[in-house]
Design a protein that fits this description.
Helices cover 18% and strands 28% of the residues. It is of the alpha/beta class.
Protein backbone atom coordinates (compact mmCIF):
# COMPACT_ATOMS: atom_id res chain seq x y z
CA UNK A 1 0.00 0.00 0.00
CA UNK A 2 2.77 2.48 0.89
CA UNK A 3 4.51 1.84 -2.42
CA UNK A 4 1.30 2.63 -4.33
CA UNK A 5 0.80 5.83 -2.30
CA UNK A 6 4.33 7.01 -3.00
CA UNK A 7 3.98 6.09 -6.66
CA UNK A 8 0.69 7.99 -6.97
CA UNK A 9 2.18 11.01 -5.17
CA UNK A 10 5.21 10.92 -7.45
CA UNK A 11 2.95 10.70 -10.48
CA UNK A 12 0.78 13.61 -9.30
CA UNK A 13 3.75 15.83 -8.41
CA UNK A 14 5.57 14.95 -11.63
CA UNK A 15 2.47 15.76 -13.69
CA UNK A 16 2.03 19.05 -11.83
CA UNK A 17 5.63 20.05 -12.52
CA UNK A 18 5.20 19.20 -16.20
CA UNK A 19 2.00 21.24 -16.44
CA UNK A 20 3.53 24.23 -14.66
CA UNK A 21 6.60 24.22 -16.89
CA UNK A 22 4.41 25.08 -19.88
CA UNK A 23 2.76 27.99 -18.05
CA UNK A 24 5.79 30.02 -17.04
CA UNK A 25 6.82 33.27 -18.64
CA UNK A 26 9.38 35.98 -18.04
CA UNK A 27 6.77 38.02 -16.15
CA UNK A 28 5.81 35.36 -13.61
CA UNK A 29 7.45 33.86 -10.57
CA UNK A 30 10.20 31.30 -11.04
CA UNK A 31 9.00 27.75 -11.62
CA UNK A 32 8.25 26.07 -8.33
CA UNK A 33 8.01 29.36 -6.44
CA UNK A 34 5.06 28.15 -4.38
CA UNK A 35 7.21 25.30 -3.10
CA UNK A 36 10.16 27.53 -2.16
CA UNK A 37 10.83 29.37 1.09
CA UNK A 38 9.09 32.69 1.63
CA UNK A 39 11.39 35.30 -0.01
CA UNK A 40 11.00 37.52 3.06
CA UNK A 41 12.81 34.82 5.05
CA UNK A 42 16.01 35.79 3.19
CA UNK A 43 17.97 37.82 5.76
CA UNK A 44 18.79 40.44 3.14
CA UNK A 45 15.12 41.39 2.71
CA UNK A 46 13.56 40.39 6.01
CA UNK A 47 11.96 43.21 7.97
CA UNK A 48 14.34 44.11 10.77
CA UNK A 49 15.45 46.91 13.06
CA UNK A 50 18.78 48.38 11.98
CA UNK A 51 21.07 51.27 12.89
CA UNK A 52 20.26 54.37 10.86
CA UNK A 53 22.73 57.24 10.38
CA UNK A 54 20.78 59.46 7.96
CA UNK A 55 19.65 62.97 8.84
CA UNK A 56 15.89 62.43 8.37
CA UNK A 57 13.75 62.75 11.50
CA UNK A 58 11.78 59.86 13.01
CA UNK A 59 8.61 59.05 11.08
CA UNK A 60 10.22 59.65 7.67
CA UNK A 61 10.25 56.92 5.02
CA UNK A 62 13.48 56.65 3.02
CA UNK A 63 13.69 54.40 -0.04
CA UNK A 64 17.15 53.49 -1.30
CA UNK A 65 16.37 52.18 -4.78
CA UNK A 66 19.97 51.11 -5.48
CA UNK A 67 20.15 48.80 -2.46
CA UNK A 68 16.44 47.77 -2.65
CA UNK A 69 15.63 48.84 0.92
CA UNK A 70 12.96 51.01 2.47
CA UNK A 71 13.62 52.51 5.90
CA UNK A 72 11.01 53.75 8.35
CA UNK A 73 13.10 56.07 10.53
CA UNK A 74 12.67 55.53 14.28
CA UNK A 75 14.08 57.40 17.28
CA UNK A 76 17.54 56.86 18.78
CA UNK A 77 19.39 56.21 15.52
CA UNK A 78 17.28 53.21 14.52
CA UNK A 79 15.03 52.34 11.58
CA UNK A 80 12.84 49.47 10.51
CA UNK A 81 14.27 48.20 7.22
CA UNK A 82 12.17 46.40 4.59
CA UNK A 83 13.28 44.72 1.37
CA UNK A 84 11.58 46.16 -1.71
CA UNK A 85 11.25 45.77 -5.47
CA UNK A 86 11.74 48.96 -7.44
CA UNK A 87 10.99 50.32 -10.89
CA UNK A 88 12.67 49.08 -14.02
CA UNK A 89 15.50 51.23 -15.36
CA UNK A 90 14.17 54.70 -16.19
CA UNK A 91 10.80 54.15 -14.54
CA UNK A 92 11.58 54.84 -10.89
CA UNK A 93 10.26 57.80 -8.96
CA UNK A 94 13.06 59.85 -7.34
CA UNK A 95 12.68 62.78 -5.01
CA UNK A 96 10.45 63.79 -2.11
CA UNK A 97 6.75 63.25 -1.64
CA UNK A 98 4.21 62.81 1.11
CA UNK A 99 1.66 60.10 1.68
CA UNK A 100 -1.52 61.73 0.46
CA UNK A 101 -3.84 58.75 0.73
CA UNK A 102 -3.85 55.19 2.13
CA UNK A 103 -5.97 52.20 1.10
CA UNK A 104 -6.32 48.58 2.15
CA UNK A 105 -6.85 46.08 -0.70
CA UNK A 106 -6.91 48.96 -3.22
CA UNK A 107 -8.20 48.71 -6.76
CA UNK A 108 -5.68 49.15 -9.59
CA UNK A 109 -5.84 50.65 -13.04
CA UNK A 110 -2.82 50.83 -15.36
CA UNK A 111 -1.88 54.31 -16.50
CA UNK A 112 -1.89 55.17 -20.21
CA UNK A 113 1.94 55.20 -20.14
CA UNK A 114 1.98 51.68 -18.68
CA UNK A 115 -0.37 50.43 -21.40
CA UNK A 116 1.77 52.09 -24.07
CA UNK A 117 4.94 50.39 -22.73
CA UNK A 118 3.21 47.04 -22.18
CA UNK A 119 0.19 46.68 -24.51
CA UNK A 120 -0.85 43.43 -22.79
CA UNK A 121 -2.05 45.63 -19.89
CA UNK A 122 -4.81 47.11 -22.10
CA UNK A 123 -7.14 44.31 -20.99
CA UNK A 124 -7.03 45.89 -17.50
CA UNK A 125 -7.81 49.44 -18.71
CA UNK A 126 -11.08 49.44 -16.75
CA UNK A 127 -9.20 48.44 -13.60
CA UNK A 128 -9.00 45.49 -11.24
CA UNK A 129 -10.87 45.49 -7.94
CA UNK A 130 -8.93 45.02 -4.71
CA UNK A 131 -8.11 41.49 -3.66
CA UNK A 132 -5.42 38.82 -3.78
CA UNK A 133 -5.07 38.98 -7.58
CA UNK A 134 -4.61 42.74 -7.64
CA UNK A 135 -1.05 43.94 -8.39
CA UNK A 136 -1.15 46.48 -5.52
CA UNK A 137 -1.52 43.71 -2.96
CA UNK A 138 -2.89 44.15 0.54
CA UNK A 139 -2.38 47.91 0.90
CA UNK A 140 -1.05 51.01 -0.82
CA UNK A 141 0.39 54.34 0.29
CA UNK A 142 -0.17 56.94 -2.45
CA UNK A 143 2.65 59.44 -3.05
CA UNK A 144 1.69 63.08 -3.56
CA UNK A 145 3.67 66.22 -4.43
CA UNK A 146 2.15 69.66 -4.02
CA UNK A 147 -1.23 68.12 -3.27
CA UNK A 148 -1.26 66.16 -6.55
CA UNK A 149 -1.11 62.38 -6.96
CA UNK A 150 2.22 61.37 -8.55
CA UNK A 151 0.70 58.01 -9.65
CA UNK A 152 3.54 56.30 -7.75
CA UNK A 153 2.80 54.05 -4.79
CA UNK A 154 4.37 52.13 -1.95
CA UNK A 155 2.33 48.93 -2.12
CA UNK A 156 2.09 45.22 -1.49
CA UNK A 157 2.48 42.64 -4.19
CA UNK A 158 1.01 39.38 -5.37
CA UNK A 159 4.51 38.60 -6.73
CA UNK A 160 6.66 38.42 -3.58
CA UNK A 161 9.44 36.75 -5.59
CA UNK A 162 10.12 40.19 -7.12
CA UNK A 163 11.45 41.68 -3.86
CA UNK A 164 15.08 42.72 -4.36
CA UNK A 165 14.64 43.29 -8.10
CA UNK A 166 14.05 46.20 -10.48
CA UNK A 167 10.86 44.96 -12.14
CA UNK A 168 7.94 47.31 -11.51
CA UNK A 169 6.48 50.12 -13.59
CA UNK A 170 7.99 52.57 -11.11
CA UNK A 171 6.24 51.89 -7.82
CA UNK A 172 7.92 50.47 -4.72
CA UNK A 173 6.73 46.94 -3.83
CA UNK A 174 6.88 45.27 -0.42
CA UNK A 175 5.60 41.86 0.59
CA UNK A 176 1.98 42.00 1.73
CA UNK A 177 3.08 41.34 5.33
CA UNK A 178 5.54 44.23 5.18
CA UNK A 179 3.18 46.73 3.57
CA UNK A 180 0.70 45.85 6.31
CA UNK A 181 3.32 46.68 8.93
CA UNK A 182 4.35 49.93 7.19
CA UNK A 183 0.69 50.87 6.64
CA UNK A 184 0.11 50.67 10.39
CA UNK A 185 3.09 52.97 11.11
CA UNK A 186 2.84 55.60 8.36
CA UNK A 187 0.17 58.29 8.49
CA UNK A 188 -1.24 60.51 5.77
CA UNK A 189 1.24 63.38 5.55
CA UNK A 190 4.31 61.19 6.21
CA UNK A 191 7.37 62.47 4.32
CA UNK A 192 8.86 60.01 1.81
CA UNK A 193 12.36 60.43 0.34
CA UNK A 194 13.26 58.23 -2.63
CA UNK A 195 16.94 58.18 -3.61
Amino acid sequence: MDKQHITRRGLVLGSLALMLSGCTSGDGPPLGYRFARDPDADPRYRRQEVAYTGSEPPGTIVVDTASRYLYFVEADGLATRYGVAVGEEGLSFKGEATIGYKAEWPSWKPTNDMIQRKPRLAKYADGIPGGPLNPLGAAALYLYQGGQDTLFRLHGTNAPWSIGRAVSNGCIRLTNANIGDLYSRARVGTRVVVI
